[in-house]
Structure formats: C-alpha cells, structure tokens
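Batch job 17 of 40 flagged for manual review because the log was empty.
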Amino acid sequence: MPRKVFHSVPTNNGWKVESNGRTISKHRTQAGAERAAIKAGHRVRNAGGLAQATLHKANGRIREDRKYGTR
C-alpha cells in the first residue's frame, strides 16, 4: 500500500495543503496548514493506512517529514 503524502506549502496569498498535486485545503498561516497536514496524516493512519506530512518552509524547501503508520 503506498504512503499518502500531504504537503504544507506556501502560496502567493497564504498556505495550502496538497496531496498528489491537488489542493486539499487553504490556510492563512503556515501553522494552520501544518496542523491540517498532520491531522490528515493521522486520519489516514487511524483508518489503517500509511501517511506522511511533509512540512515546508516559507521558501518552499522541506523543513520536516512526519510519517504515520507502519509497514
């Protein structure tokens, strides 16, 4: 089963969470987007799947990866 990855990424007017190139949610702050990405990862894990929250810096570079579930 592949791992579902949720990215919190900056946009021109705030932040968003995306997965597989699709926007999942939009947020005014980095913290809000990070909370949403982590929560989405927890939901997948709680349903028995594998997930990852990839948290980006304001410059777009990856700051942190959090993995949920076990193989």
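Reviewer: the log was empty due to a logging misconfiguration, but the result itself is present. Strands lie at 4-11, 14-19, 22-27, 51-56, 62-68. Unflagging and moving on to job 18.
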